[in-house]
Structures are given as C-alpha cells and as structure tokens.
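Quick one: NUDIX hydrolase from Agromyces sp. G08B096, structure tokens please.
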Amino acid sequence: MTRAVETAVYAAGAVCWRVIDGRVHVLVVHRTVYGDVTIPKGKVDPGESLPQTAVREIAEETGLQVALGVPLGESRYGLPSGREKVVHYWAAEVSEKAVQRSTFRPNSEIAALEWVSIKRARSYLSYEPDVAILDAFARLVEQEVTTTFSLLVVRHGKAVGRSGWHGADAARPLTELGVQQAAGLSTTLAAWSPQRIVSSPAVRCVTTVAPLAAAIGVPIKRDEGISQDAWDAGHDEVRRVVGKRVRVGRTAVLCSHNPVLPGILREIALATGTPLGGYVDDAAALEPGAFSVVHLSATNPSSGIVAIETHPAHPARA
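--- reply ---
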C-alpha cells in the first residue's frame, strides 16, 4: 500500500456484508444531505492510518463494529477543488451480534441503512466508482472466498543497533522511534481484530506488540520458534508456528525479525497450497515497524492465499 500524497484527499471504507436467508447482502447508506446511495466511507483524520479510518467511519456512519477482511482496491476521482480523492476499501463481514448491537439512528449525515442483494446494490449505488468496488467484492463471492481470516506478519519496530548495544542481542530495546511505531501499529493492527498475538521472545519484538495486546486484551504468546536466535542457529520452528495458525483459522499477529520474515511468508504459502512466487519476497521485504496482511479462506484454507496487502511503518520513518 502506497504512502499518502499530500495533494490528495484520502478516505477509507468497506463493503459490509452478511448472509440473509442464504444469500449474501451488502450494506448501502442513504446520505441525508446529498440524497445519494453509497458504500460507507469517510476521510482520514490527522494521524490515522487507512485501516483505522475504515473501521472508525463504519462505526460512526452505521453503528456497526467490524473487522476488516480482504482489500477491494481503491477508487480515484476529482473534487470540485481540483484535488484528487483516493478511497481505499476492504470487505467486512458483519456478525449478527454486531447487527444487534448497532447504535445507528438517522442523523444529519446518514438518513437510512439498507441491506440489499449485490444485484440490487448495483442499481442503487449513485456513483460508478462504488459499483467497481462492489464488483470486486462480487468476484470474491463467486470464488466462494468471502469468509476469511488474516495472518498479520509484523517486523518489529526500529531497535537500538548492534554496534551501540553491549548485551545479548535478544535484549536489544526499541529506539524512541520504534516505540512510536509500536503505538501506531496498535491502532492499525486492531482494525483486523486479531484473536492471537505470537511474538519472538526478543525484547524488540515483544515491546512492538505490547501496546496492541494492552489495547485489545489479548496476551502475547512468546515463541522461540520464530526468534532470530533460533533462525540463525538453524533450529527454528517456523513451520510449526505457521501451521498451527493456519489450522486454527483465526486472525493472528506474528511478530518477528527481518531474516525470519521470508520463511514465515513461505510457510504460509506452502501451508495453503499456494504456488511460490516473487510476492513472497515482496511481502517479506518490510522496514522496521511495517507489516503484511495475508488473507486466507476460513472455510477452505488450502485453497490458497486470497490476497496480501503491505503497510508501511506508522508513523513514517524520519
């Protein structure tokens, strides 16, 4: 995912979906002021990441608490001001519990919510860019890979360099920038609602995911199998760690080290029957504090990787 360009206006949203009477329905919003029908979305607030914006805007516009699923692409169009607007979208499955807990009431921004079939949504939506995003979601439905879970592969934040550290390598701490990156990661990774956090026992890894663990109430499982010490010594257990996460089928964070990341991505591909390719190296080539999200089918994980998205460190490196 590219970094923001200052001259553009950035926004994010999601195609919210659920199964009603055996058929996939999507949520459209009827906007009060404009009198149009759109996919829920909104502009990025200062300091926010795009995934964070998508989850927040959906909650504000619809009252629904969602976790992000597969990325659906972006739409670009010009504004009357002459600036370009860029909107990033994801799929987001809505649970019945979330529907029951929705706090939505008609207001000055959104007049009504409506769950409709994909076919009807195409005729309802007021703008062609929205229809293109809906079509991207429809392709997932046709491929029967709508229900997914994610493995979020994280490289630890910026750490004190080896040359400036005289203790054990595993004890090297994060720099001030690394601590900032960890705080930014917390709010961004939470957009996928991870249910498990697995980390190398190294201080720089555990500290990177500690803010996330505190924010979502999920304990950190320290696993030597994805540590750099184990990798360097040739007795890592990346296959065991990754295999378990694929087998369990729940969204999880895996925080590790630069040399280990290609092995983690490779094992995810092998565990899901996905042909290896350059995408593995691309997804593993992460700067400190960055992460890749690997989306897998929850109903048939062996059908292969559905999508991969990569996000830069937040905040951006100085």
